[in-house]
Amino acid sequence: MLQFETQLKKLKHDILVEIVKYARKDELTKENLDKIPDKVIHGKKATYRCCIYKEREIAFERARMAVDIDPNTEENRDVNIDDIKISEGDQIIYILEAACDSCPINDFMVTDLCRGCLAHRCKEACKFDAIYYINGRAYIDHDKCKSCGACKRACQYDAIAEIIRPCKSVCPTGALDIDQDTSKAKIHEEKCVNCGSCMSACPFGAISDRSLIAPVARMLEEGGKNIYAIVAPAITGQVPQIITYGQVKNAIKALGFKDMYEAACGADAVTVHEANEFAERMENGDTMMTNSCCPGFVSYVDIMYPELKDKVSGTVSPMIATARYIKNMDPEAVVVFIGPCTAKKKEAVRPDVAGAVDYVLTFEEIMAMFEGFGIEFAKCESEDVDDASIFGRGFGAAGGLTKAIENYVNDSEVNVEFKPVKISGGKEAKKVMTMAKVNRLGGNFIEGMMCEGGCINGAGKFMSMMKAKPSFDKKNAQSTMKTVLSNEILEEYKNINLERNL
């Protein structure tokens, strides 16, 4: 039985399960979408919101989002599963307006820790006369306040708090903004990298991602196609430690997939290709290069540091490498990538790699798929799954790519000085890329991961990184391939194009 860390996770899961069940029966009608809120929210008493009607309206928005109906602009309608797709230029992350709590947006606030002291250093520090007193206690006039923070720095009791909305504070590009008229969150799509950090951070679950779960569920139910699953290395952290990789593979095959491939195997191939590309660039006089496996990071560079776009590796990501390998083997293949990353949904349709991956599901979505199809890991047989090196599987955590390249450089004939600088999360990205922009990097290779901790902490994860990491480390260590070059499948990748079509 699945364990949920929060009620938000359970609610989203339950809605996705209902979508899967209706999709399997080809019954995603307007009338059935209307039924989903009553199926997932029981009783007549509200649990978290002001009333049961509000809770059901939010559930309804989630259901519509899951079948590609924009909950903020479109009327409810019947769903044509064939029309559910993501195209180039499409936004992945959306605000669910009914769910947004319009959190307070005053940047600074005097808390109850204010002692009503006589020094009044907060008032002396404020150059805008925004501090006033009632019965000796300090208050802030927000009409005058310029949010400079001088009062906070001056208070010896640390009684002035800086309040930033969780969604806004984690956005690496400033795409997440606040509507001044409604106080609700909004996204500037032209600045959004679709990393999903805001989705993970929002305590009200007011931000969600577009889903392709319905067409995938229907396709698996109908059969007749060669449907292959590629699983991200982070999958090993999303199931209990007692569940083997082989059981995960057979659970996926029980859904109707013809076979399952590890993206970690593609990661081994990417390591070799990217390391050789790096060496060539350094020989040609380049001063630095970045990775390209994190689509959120690639988009971040495009948007925030366009002058450094040419420093991004021309090598494809492990997802694309593995998909191209499968389609080279089976031209009729339909490829579904399963991972923790919402930005992968955008990467799959990016012009430089489009055509390799047909659908992308998150770990949240695949867990709903298992329940919707009535499949339990524990009841699936195990088998040996050993298609990737320990370093390829390590791509799922921050620093894993760097370790893989270091291993390859040490074991191969590549003669180059490798001085990596690692980025784990948006805050580090800004610091490191700013230093790179002014030629003060202190290294020659940047490993950029937009999610703090790496893919294992992606927005589409089912289990938190804290709970997933032990299982991830344990299962990855079971790989019998202890070096990148020990993976014999690398020979088969020599005929696969591993370059982005720039």
From TrEMBL:
PROSITE patterns: 4FE4S_FER_1, 4FE4S_FER_2
InterPro entries per record: 4Fe4S_Fe-S-bd (IPR017896), 4Fe4S_Fe_S_CS (IPR017900), Cytosolic_Fe-S_CAF (IPR050340), Fe_hydrogenase (IPR009016), Fe_hydrogenase_lsu_C (IPR004108), LdpA_Fe-S-bd (IPR057431), Mono_FeFe_hydrog (IPR027631)
Alphabetical list of SUPFAM superfamilies matching this protein: 4Fe-4S ferredoxins (SSF54862), Fe-only hydrogenase (SSF53920)
Keywords noted in UniProt: Iron, Iron-sulfur, Metal-binding
Record domain 4Fe-4S ferredoxin-type: where: 136-166, 183-212
Residue ranges of coiled coil: none
Keyword Transferase: no
Origin superkingdom: Bacteria
Transmembrane segments: none
GO molecular function, one term: iron-sulfur cluster binding
Protein name: 4Fe-4S dicluster domain-containing protein
